Input
Amino acid sequence: MTTSSYRILLVMGTTHWSHALTEHAIAEAVAADARGATVELDVLYIIEQDDLDRVYRSVGESGFLGTRPQAEITSLLLQEHLRVAAKRIEEARRAVEERGYKTTERHVTGHYEAEVRAAASTGQYDVIFLSRSDKTFLSRFFFGSEADRVARWVREEGYGKVVVEDTEG
Output
């Protein structure tokens, strides 16, 4: 009997995170396992460059801090994001491995859409789990959601199934 491989990508980020999404990805792993598949769940955590850039500009535009404090504040923010990333990745890894599935984890600093597209375009995932950033309904209606744009692109390119959920507020 041949077992098939079933790859899941769980994407988290600085402003794109949901505990419920992690549980949903694990439920997908359990269902694939029940069908006889060998399950692998990859966790990709994106430290969103846009967030770092926004703080850098915000601190710099006030003009009274100067460039050195501006860089130090941005560095401190990056360190905080790395700490949170490590915590969230570890929580997801533990939850996945407690159920007996293989997991790989990595974090990158970059732009959410570009990083998700790069991971998805490898074509190695059966399903990709994304979380929308915390925005109001009107903001999403008028400006869209990064997660929704990426999900639409993944589907159009035929890179697999995509699940998109809201972040936890």
